[in-house]
Amino acid sequence: MLPIPELFPEGKGSADIMAQAFATKHLWDHRYYKLKLYFYTIGTFLFTALTVSALEYFFGISMWRWLFTA
Q1: Dihedral, CA atoms, 15, 19, 21, 23, nearest 10 degrees?
Q2: How far apart are CA 41 and CA 51, in angstroms?
Q3: Residue 46: which region, alpha, beta or left (left: phi > 0; alpha: psi -120 to 50)?
Q4: 54-64: pLDDT as tens digits
Q5: Are 29 and 35 contacting, i.e. CB atoms less than 8 angstroms apart?
Protein backbone atom coordinates (compact mmCIF):
# COMPACT_ATOMS: atom_id res chain seq x y z
CA MET A 1 0.00 0.00 0.00
CA LEU A 2 1.34 3.41 -0.95
CA PRO A 3 1.76 6.04 1.75
CA ILE A 4 -0.71 8.90 1.90
CA PRO A 5 0.90 11.93 0.23
CA GLU A 6 1.68 14.91 2.41
CA LEU A 7 2.34 18.48 1.45
CA PHE A 8 5.35 18.81 3.79
CA PRO A 9 6.38 15.30 4.84
CA GLU A 10 8.37 14.84 8.04
CA GLY A 11 10.11 11.86 9.50
CA LYS A 12 12.08 8.96 8.10
CA GLY A 13 9.90 8.50 5.01
CA SER A 14 10.11 12.11 3.86
CA ALA A 15 13.09 11.50 1.59
CA ASP A 16 11.32 8.60 -0.10
CA ILE A 17 8.13 10.58 -0.61
CA MET A 18 9.99 13.60 -1.99
CA ALA A 19 12.10 11.39 -4.28
CA GLN A 20 8.98 9.70 -5.63
CA ALA A 21 7.31 13.07 -6.20
CA PHE A 22 10.37 14.41 -8.02
CA ALA A 23 10.65 11.25 -10.13
CA THR A 24 7.07 11.55 -11.39
CA LYS A 25 7.11 15.35 -11.77
CA HIS A 26 7.92 15.15 -15.49
CA LEU A 27 4.70 13.20 -16.13
CA TRP A 28 2.59 16.00 -14.68
CA ASP A 29 4.63 18.64 -16.50
CA HIS A 30 4.05 16.81 -19.79
CA ARG A 31 0.31 16.50 -19.16
CA TYR A 32 0.04 20.20 -18.28
CA TYR A 33 2.06 21.24 -21.34
CA LYS A 34 -0.07 19.02 -23.58
CA LEU A 35 -3.28 20.50 -22.15
CA LYS A 36 -1.98 24.05 -22.69
CA LEU A 37 -0.94 23.20 -26.25
CA TYR A 38 -4.44 21.89 -27.05
CA PHE A 39 -6.06 24.92 -25.41
CA TYR A 40 -3.94 27.49 -27.26
CA THR A 41 -4.27 25.68 -30.60
CA ILE A 42 -8.06 25.46 -30.39
CA GLY A 43 -8.29 29.01 -29.03
CA THR A 44 -6.15 30.43 -31.84
CA PHE A 45 -8.19 28.59 -34.47
CA LEU A 46 -11.50 29.86 -33.06
CA PHE A 47 -10.20 33.42 -32.67
CA THR A 48 -8.91 33.48 -36.25
CA ALA A 49 -12.12 32.01 -37.68
CA LEU A 50 -14.31 34.48 -35.79
CA THR A 51 -12.09 37.45 -36.69
CA VAL A 52 -12.07 36.59 -40.40
CA SER A 53 -15.83 36.03 -40.36
CA ALA A 54 -16.39 39.39 -38.64
CA LEU A 55 -14.15 41.20 -41.14
CA GLU A 56 -15.95 39.54 -44.05
CA TYR A 57 -19.31 40.54 -42.60
CA PHE A 58 -18.39 44.17 -41.85
CA PHE A 59 -16.61 44.86 -45.15
CA GLY A 60 -18.87 42.74 -47.36
CA ILE A 61 -16.05 40.70 -48.86
CA SER A 62 -15.48 36.99 -49.26
CA MET A 63 -12.00 35.60 -48.65
CA TRP A 64 -12.78 32.44 -50.65
CA ARG A 65 -13.91 34.44 -53.67
CA TRP A 66 -10.89 36.76 -53.39
CA LEU A 67 -8.42 33.86 -53.07
CA PHE A 68 -9.81 31.45 -55.67
CA THR A 69 -11.14 33.62 -58.50
CA ALA A 70 -9.00 35.38 -61.05
Answers
A1: 180
A2: 15
A3: alpha
A4: 999 999 999 88
A5: no
User: What pLDDT is recorded for position 12?
Assistant: 63
- DSSP 8-state symbol, 60: T
Neighbours of 40 (CB within 10 A): 10
Angle of helix 14-23 versus helix 25-59 axis, rounded to 10: 40
The span from the CA of 25 to the CA of 23, in Å, is: 6
Tell me the C-alpha distance between 40 and 33, whole Å.
Answer: 10
pLDDT above 70 covers a percentage of the chain that reads 80
Measured over all CA atoms, what is the biggest interatomic distance in the chain, rounded to whole angstroms?
A: 77
Asked if pLDDT for residue 14 goes beyond 80, the answer is: no
pLDDT in tens, 25-41: 777 788 889 999 999 99
